[in-house]
Amino acid sequence: MDTPEKATQIATPLSKFEDSPVFNYINSLSPIKPVKSIHIAQTFNSLNFASLPSIFTSPHVSAHKETRFLKRNNCSDPSKPGSSSENGNKVCTDDGVAMDVSELYDNSAQLQENFDPGVSIEEDPVEPSSDSKFGIELPCVLKYDCGSPGCDPTPCSVIETTCVSETATPSAPVAPFVEKDSENGSFEDEAHLQGASRIEEKKEEVGCEWESLISDAQDLLIFNYPNESEAFKGLIQKSMEPGARFYASLVTQFSQNDLCREPQVQMVDSVGSGQQREMEARSDQPGETSELKEIDETENNLANDDLNNCLTGNPSEKVADEVRACVKDACKRVPTLHRGMLRRCLDFERVARRKNLNDGANCSSIILQSNEEIASEDNQLVPLKPTGDSPRCIVPGIGLHLNALALASQDNKNFKHEILSSGRQLSLSSATASFHSPKSSQEPVQETLTSAYAERDVVPADDGVPLAEDASQTSGYLVGEESNQNSPKKKRHVHLTMMRRLEQAGESEAASCKRCNCKKSKCLKLYCECFAAGVYCIEPCSCQDCFNKPIHEDTVLATRKQIESRNPLAFAPKVIRSSDSVPEHGDESTKTPASARHKRGCNCKKSSCLKKYCECYQGGVGCSINCRCEGCKNAFGRKDGSAIIETEAEPEDEETETCEKGGMDPILQRTEIPNNEEQNPGSALPTTPLQFSRSLVQRPVSSKFKPPRSLLSIGSSSAFYTGFNYGKPTILRSQPTKFEKLLQTAPEDEMPEILRGNCSPDSGVKSASPNSKRVSPPNAGLGSSPSRRSGRKLILQSIPSFPSLTPQH
DNA sequence: GAGTTTGAAACT
DNA sequence: CAGTTTCAAACTC
């Protein structure tokens, strides 16, 4: 079931093809291809892989999923009519590529394995492309083809056949591929197949072509942009190629786990066949970054248009929906997928707008789920929590990392829908991804957030925001899942984790997403959660006379400045975490213990710090010395230090210093939770949000803790607004990262350990200085937290160390 | 959904 | 800095 086998299988087929005379012939025809593939591979390596060892081994599963996505995407995208004619060329290219791909695949596989966590998202996009192209791709293609009657069955088959041999015996090749998929396919595969079949059906209507598939894949890679095949083609030729490369690289990097990477490369190549030259030229281009930017731009531009076009242009609404979903997923995936992607995310976010993030990956994962919902377990995920909160989460959550985090379970469904509906969401997801991505990219992230935020506001797509959050979380989760997916069990875990993540994310997102209900503050005071979180108010908000909208950007910024002048930390995350999420073994940063604490402390007198009235509780952190609360019973940690949970162990300075409230606990809890969740998916759901913190909290507390969405809200901060520095949602972010890492890296059992390890450390160094009210400069808190988290996630993803570290299974 | 409670934010 | 008021979320019914 697991990936490794698949990978081997795929690889073998490719090699076979390569060996075949036809393949050779094709290769002779298109000498360039190999170079491209290589080139791409290099890019991948440069971007992601450098760090990636080949630790992860079983990406296959994820790959399958990806393929599904690709298929779907293709199907969705197929709007393009086709370039049936191109098939031949593509075939040739494919063949040529196949060779390279096989190599790449091997490399990518290793890389992917390393990246598994993050890869999941990327992989999906990649796979599609890859599928279309080569043997590896074939499965996907076949699926698509089979699924999409409309598109010329022949084309698809052709592609497949081409893969096998240039001859067009579509059916024959297809069947084999399909079988492969099915065989390889674990649950996910099956689900993918199902989903693919559906998609294919839709596609059939549209009429998919190989090119369209590729284009779709590329689009997906790009971020889901549904860009219709046409746009895709054009893009590919023009900007797309770079983008394709970029995506491919990203995808490969992220997805490396699975075959998907290769496929992506292949896709690119295939595209190149038609546009190979361009592709090559692009590949040749030295600067990946430039490519990325271009891609981003194109994506951004295309994204909206493409999505709309695809939706509108595509024959059937179903297709449009699928396309949307695919796009959303892709966007989500993309962000999460690659750190390098961050820029995209940022850009993308700008265009699409925020959020979020990492979630991006999360989003993608979510999207995938949504897409795959039909398929399998994912469906379960979807249902996670449709709770009332979800709505917020979905939309607003996006706001920041928080949003991404928040996505959590509840919103999943809604989230999916929203995502599907709005392109922005995708952007958001991407943004989330950005968070995950690079530690270094904190600033970028903020930018993205702000931009995304602005965009959201502008756009209206409320959904987008929450989605982003979800995405971010999901991405992380996805990554973990994918990484985990190697085995069926892993897949399940992944799903569970995903679910949990989603739930948590949903919660967090909900928090981040928050909808305000301001009546007198015009949403220009900290009373307004949206404003406090640095997010524009959106439709879900019930505010009156709201000035917290993009239209009033100047006012918002001015007000914000005023408030910041008064209190520089006003928009900083209320909860400061030391970020300790140590990923597990290897990850670096996380080692530091992270204790989360409320920067100012609470002043509760009647709630005993057991209700959300208490910001500490709401933030999922224990009370600290800073708190002036009376009768503190904070489940996360009491002022006196009675902490709550076991996890808290982190002694750390803070505790010693202050009473230690237990800020750490949440984190620890979080970490623990995931494990639990993974183990008990069903149970996990309830825990939800923030997953970690909340879950942790909950446990300690027991049922009561719901993790307050506030965590998200708390964490959330200004990210959206341009200037706002801080990503308030430190807690959330940190949590998510931890989770993600844990999830990603350590699937099940491992995770707990890691989490534990991480947890302990958390105690909060940063937050540590309880006294210092806002000790950590906003930047540190905001920027750092998010970035850190993101970075962590990235690290985790990129460094699949977990797998290696954690013996896994 | 309306009303109450609560505590943070804002104001003095 | 302390006290008061305002505000909106959280909570209850």
UniProtKB/TrEMBL annotation:
UniProt biased composition (Polar residues): 73-90, 471-487, 798-809
Top-level lineage group: Eukaryota
Keyword vocabulary terms for this entry: Nucleus
Parts forming coiled coils: none
Compartment annotation: Nucleus
Family that this chain belongs to: Belongs to the lin-54 family.
Protein name in UniProt: CRC domain-containing protein
